[in-house]
User: Which sequence fits this backbone?
C-alpha cells in the first residue's frame, strides 16, 4: 500500500460518508429527484462543473493534448463553456418553470405525450450510460495506475465508490458531494500546475520548447500535429470549431447539465450558476491543457497519453501535492459517475416505470432506490466486460444528445407552433441518424469527412423529422398554450434588485472573456511567436 492509495481510500470513505449523511435528510421523491428545489448557487455551480469535467477531461482531453492536439482541444473547451450561459437563458430557466422531476418529463409535459417522454428517457439512458462507462473506466484506469491491481478489480472498487451514496441519497447527496469534489480538483489544478511548469524549465522556456518540437511538431500550433487527426491545419481547425459547437449544444440541453437547474431555488440561481460554471470550466480546463502540454516537454515517451497527469503527480510534484492531484482526478470521475447513475435511475423510475406515486412518498422513495440499485448493477456488468476507451465513449455520448435533443429542446421553448409529432420525429430521427452513422464509422474503421460527421447527419435527420412531423400534424391549441405559459415569469421571481445583480454578473462574464483573450495573447501567442523567430 502506498501513499497515493491511502489518499484515494480516505477520499472515497469521506465521499461515501457525506453522501450517506445527506441521504438521511431525504424524506420523499421531491428530495430524491430534485433536492427539494432549494439548492443555492454554490451547489448548482459545483454540480454543473463536477458532472461535466469527468475523467474525460482529466485523462481523455489531456491525453489528446499530450499527443499533439493542444489548440484543437483548447478551442473545443472555450466554445463548450459558452453553452452554460446560452443554455440557462434559452432552455434552463424555462424547464425549471415546468416544475418537473426530469428533463424527459418536461418533454412529455410540454407536448402532453407519453411516447415522447419515453423516447427522451431512452435517448437519455443511452447517452448517459456511455458517459457513465467513461467515468467508471477513467477512475478504474487511475486506480490501476496507483495500486497495481487488476483493471477489473478496480472497476468493482470504482463502482462501489459512487453507488452507495448515490442510491441512498439521490440528488441531495450528489449535489453536495459534487461540490466538494469540484473544490478538490480545482485545488489540484491550481496547486499542481506550478510544479509542472517548473519541471519544464519555466513558462517561456516550456512554450518555446513545445513551439519548436521536432518529436511532436505542431503540438501547440494552430494546425496541431498534422499526423494526429487530419493532415491539414484547416481541417483540424474546422473539426475543433464543429465539436466546440457540438459540446456547447451538449452543455445547453444535456440532461446531466440542465437537470441541475430543476434543483435551483429560483431563476436567478439558474442564471448566476451558469456564469460561474462557464468561468470555472474555462479556468480548470485551460490549466489542465497547458499542464498536459508541459508534461510532454518533461517526458515525451509515455506509453499511455491519457495518464500524463497521473505520471506528473507521481514523478514531478511533491508527494502531498501529487496525492491532491490524483485525488482530484479520482473526484472528477466519481462525481460524474454519481450524477450519471442518478440520472439513469431517476429517469427509468420516473419516466418509464412511473413509480413516482405522490400519494405514497415513502413507497415511491423505496422503489426509486431499488430501481437505482438495479441500474447500477447492470452498469457494473457492462463496465466490467468493456475495455477502456475513454475519449471515444465520451464523444459518442455527447454527439447523440446534441443531435437528438439540440434543436428539439430549443424549439420546444421558442417555437410555439411545434407539434408533438414534430418533436417526436425530430428526436427519433436525430437519435437514429447519429447512432447509426457513428456505429458504422466505428465498426468500419473509416474516418468520415468533417462535413459527414455523425453530429451533422443526426442534426440533419432531426430537422427532417421536425418538418415531416409538423406536416403530419399541426400543433394543437393546448400545445401552443403550454409553450406560452413557459414564457410567463412567476410573480415570485420578479425582483428589480435581484435582476440588477444578475445583470452585473453578466458584465463580469464579458470582462472575464476579455481577460482570457489577453492572457492567451501575452502568455501564449507572444512567447510562441518569439520562439519561432
Assistant:
Amino acid at each position: 500500500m502506498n501513499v497515493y492509495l491511502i489518499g484515494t481510500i480516505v477520499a472515497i470513505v469521506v465521499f461515501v460518508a457525506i453522501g450517506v449523511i445527506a441521504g438521511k435528510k431525504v424524506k420523499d421523491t421531491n428530495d430524491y429527484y430534485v433536492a427539494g428545489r432549494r439548492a443555492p448557487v454554490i451547489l448548482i455551480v459545483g454540480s454543473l462543473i463536477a458532472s461535466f469535467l469527468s475523467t474525460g477531461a482529466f485523462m481523455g482531453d489531456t491525453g489528446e493534448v499530450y499527443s499533439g492536439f493542444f489548440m484543437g482541444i483548447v478551442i473545443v473547451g472555450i466554445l463548450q463553456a459558452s453553452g452554460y450561459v446560452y443554455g440557462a437563458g434559452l432552455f434552463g430557466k424555462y424547464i425549471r418553470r415546468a416544475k418537473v422531476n426530469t428533463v424527459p418529463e418536461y418533454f412529455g409535459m410540454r407536448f402532453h405525450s407519453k411516447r415522447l417522454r419515453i423516447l427522451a428517457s431512452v435517448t437519455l439512458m443511452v447517452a448517459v450510460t456511455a458517459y457513465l462507462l467513461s467515468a467508471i473506466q477513467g477512475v478504474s484506469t487511475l486506480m490501476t495506475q496507483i495500486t497495481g491491481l487488476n483493471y477489473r478489480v478496480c472497476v468493482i472498487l470504482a463502482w462501489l465508490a459512487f453507488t452507495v451514496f448515490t442510491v441512498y441519497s439521490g440528488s441531495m447527496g450528489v449535489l453536495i458531494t459534487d461540490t466538494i469534489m469540484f473544490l478538490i480538483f480545482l485545488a489540484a489544478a491550481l496547486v499542481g500546475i506550478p510544479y509542472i511548469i517548473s519541471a519544464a524549465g519555466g513558462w517561456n522556456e516550456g512554450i518555446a520548447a513545445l513551439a519548436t518540437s521536432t518529436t511532436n511538431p505542431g503540438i501547440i500550433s494552430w494546425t496541431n500535429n498534422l499526423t494526429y487527426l487530419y493532415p491539414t491545419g484547416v481541417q483540424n481547425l474546422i473539426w475543433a470549431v464543429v465539436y466546440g459547437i457540438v459540446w456547447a449544444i451538449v452543455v445547453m440541453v444535456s440532461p446531466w447539465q440542465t437537470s441541475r437547474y430543476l434543483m435551483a431555488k429560483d431563476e436567478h440561481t439558474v442564471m448566476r450558476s451558469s456564469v460561474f460554471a462557464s468561468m470555472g470550466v474555462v479556468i480548470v480546463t485551460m490549466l489542465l491543457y497547458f499542464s498536459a502540454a508541459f508534461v510532454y516537454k518533461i517526458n515525451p515517451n509515455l506509453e499511455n497519453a491519457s495518464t500524463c497527469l497521473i505520471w506528473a503527480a507521481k514523478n514531478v510534484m511533491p508527494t502531498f501535492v501529487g496525492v491532491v492531484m490524483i485525488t482530484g482526478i479520482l473526484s472528477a470521475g466519481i462525481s460524474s459517475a454519481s450524477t450519471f447513475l442518478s440520472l439513469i435511475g431517476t429517469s427509468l423510475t420516473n419516466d418509464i416505470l412511473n413509480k413516482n406515486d405522490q400519494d405514497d412518498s415513502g413507497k415511491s422513495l423505496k422503489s426509486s432506490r431499488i430501481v437505482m440499485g438495479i441500474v447500477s448493477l447492470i452498469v457494473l456488468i457492462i463496465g466490467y466486460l468493456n475495455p477502456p476507451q475513454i475519449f471515444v465513449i465520451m464523444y459518442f455520448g455527447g454527439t447523440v444528445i446534441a443531435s437528438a435533443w439540440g434543436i428539439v429542446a430549443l424549439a420546444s421553448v421558442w417555437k410555439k407552433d411545434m407539434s408533438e409529432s414534430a418533436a417526436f420525429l425530430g428526436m427519433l430521427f436525430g437519435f437514429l441518424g447519429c447512432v447509426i452513422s457513428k456505429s458504422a464509422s466505428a465498426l468500419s474503421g473509416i474516418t468520415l469527412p468533417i462535413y459527414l460527421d455523425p453530429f451533422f447527419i443526426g442534426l440533419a435527420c432531426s430537422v427532417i423529422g421536425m418538418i415531416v412531423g409538423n406536416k403530419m400534424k399541426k400543433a394543437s391549441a393546448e400545445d401552443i398554450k403550454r409553450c406560452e405559459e413557459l414564457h410567463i415569469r412567476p410573480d415570485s421571481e420578479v425582483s428589480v434588485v435581484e435582476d440588477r445583480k444578475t445583470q452585473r454578473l453578466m458584465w463580469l462574464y464579458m470582462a472575464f472573456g476579455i481577460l482570457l483573450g489577453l492572457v492567451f495573447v501575452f502568455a501564449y501567442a507572444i512567447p510562441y511567436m518569439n520562439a519561432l523567430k
Remarks:
- The radius of gyration is 23 Å.
- The CA atoms of residues 387 and 396 lie 15 Å apart.
- The chain has a mean pLDDT of 89.
- Residues 151-199 form the longest helix (49 residues).
